[in-house]
Amino acid sequence: MARDAEIKRKELEEEERKADEAKKALEEAEKEVLKRQKADEEAALRRAIEARDVAKVRWARIWPRLQILRALNGINGELVAKATEEARKAREEEERAKRFEEDQAKKAAYCKQLLKDGLAAAADEGNLERAIKTTDLTVVQTTIMDNDEELRDLHIKARNELETIQKEAESKRAKETGEKEAEEKRQEEKRIAKAQIKDEKELADAQRLEAIQREKESEEKKQEEERIAEAKRKEEEEKEAEENRQEKKKIAEAKKIEDEELAEALLLEAIQREKEAEEKKQDEERTAEAKIKEEEALAEAKRLEAIQREKEAEEKREEDERIAEAKIKEDERLAGLAKLANIKASIQTAISEKDIEKLKKSIAEVKDNNLEDDFADFHKQATAMLERLQKIEKIKKNIQELKRPLIAELKSMSSPPVDVHRSMTAAFILMGENREDLRDWNNIAILLGKTGQESVKRKVQGLKVEDVTEEMAAKAEKQILGLTSDEVYEANQAASLFYDWADMICFDKKQVD
């Protein structure tokens, strides 16, 4: 029972930790939303709102589970019921979020198909224009366009195609004169009017579908309330049935007590007869026991003599075992010394080669053999090196996964913030570029645009600390001196990754030296 209590306590502590993390994440997300609202940054605000919604869902999922564990540990039925209800509400919130995501996906698919159809029939300017307007109306005040790269590309392509068609039509109309121009103008106005009517109809259809969705959600909520009422009614009926069963049980127990009293009287009479028979039997046994004791005394003398012989044989056997055990311990000691030498050589090799897998294996061997104290310096050095190498690999991975829009945003800056320029200068110095060439941001933009073997991602992935000279590290460190990752992130997200990478390379170079 103590073990079960300890397990429950640990489970509760773990849930408390998760709940604290979720709560902090939600608070940070709320602060970010307020910050973006004040800064009037529309795209960043949408991303912040999405992050806040994710944090809310996580908090809504963890909090009821924590309440249940708290209630179970305190044996409190009311808290259990309350926590269970909160868990049900959390599940409903997750389902609503899932339905919202599905609706967003359907809208995105609908808009993509509209734009594809409009591009396929590019000669029909009105059809393409309606497709673009309908898409704009569908995605307004949502993050669909930000999250769907294909939709964003189609939208840009459709707008460019529409502008081209409109320019060609305008050039053609400019060449025509008189009544033909007037007639075309009237026809265009009619077509635009029809298109506007059609757009208004499609918008009305979209609003009608949204109203149907809200009505469906309301109906689902009503059905859930009816299910809860039905469950409560059944619970009351079961409670009443249980009270009836308890009453019948009490009546049966009273009857049982009367039967037991009669049986007890009969039992006492039988016990008395058995007692008399037992006393007679004991007299007979005492006579036989005296005879047995005499025989046992003779047997005991013989047994003691045999024990003495066995004792002497046992002492000799123990002496032989002690000698054999001493030999085994000596062999184990020699084998242990050889193993220690192998582990020491392994961890030294891993440190010198800076191999992540070898470092992991060596640290695991030290831990598995409880040698942390014996190899304290090597273990500490290997652990620190492994953490640095893993951080560098993680930063490299983040740079490799940088999306094209973020790189494009960085290249498109005509006059970047000082923090961004200094961070990128430090990174390219470590890649072997000339410091003087990097003073001009246009040169950095050109380097960011290179592809193949000369691409910035390829260079970051292939660079090793040994390839960096002390002079390069000193120049790069001077560029980022006084900066922080958060400050650079505020200026540009992509530049902050290059800052983190340059900072880790400079730090690791110092450790190597």
Note the gap between the termini: 57 Å
Question: Class of the domain at 403-512 in CATH?
Answer: Mainly Alpha
Question: Which outline best applies?
Answer: flat
How large is the radius of gyration?
42 Å
Quaternary organization: single chain
Strand content: under 5%
Helical amount among residues, as a percent range? over 70%
CATH fold description of the domain at 403-512? Histone Acetyltransferase, Chain A
Return the string of H and E elements: HHHHHHHHHHHHHHHH
The unreliable regions are none
Structure characterization notes:
The chain is mainly α. Among the domains are: 74 residues; 110 residues, Up-down Bundle (Histone Acetyltransferase, Chain A).
Outline the fold blueprint.
Layout: H1 2-39, H2 42-74, H3 77-120, H4 125-139, H5 144-147, H6 149-175, H7 178-353, H8 356-368, H9 376-400, H10 404-411, H11 418-430, H12 441-448, H13 456-462, H14 470-480, H15 485-491, H16 493-512
Helix pairs in contact: 1-2, 2-3, 3-4, 3-6, 4-6, 4-7, 7-8, 7-9, 8-9, 9-13, 9-16, 11-14, 11-16, 14-16, 15-16
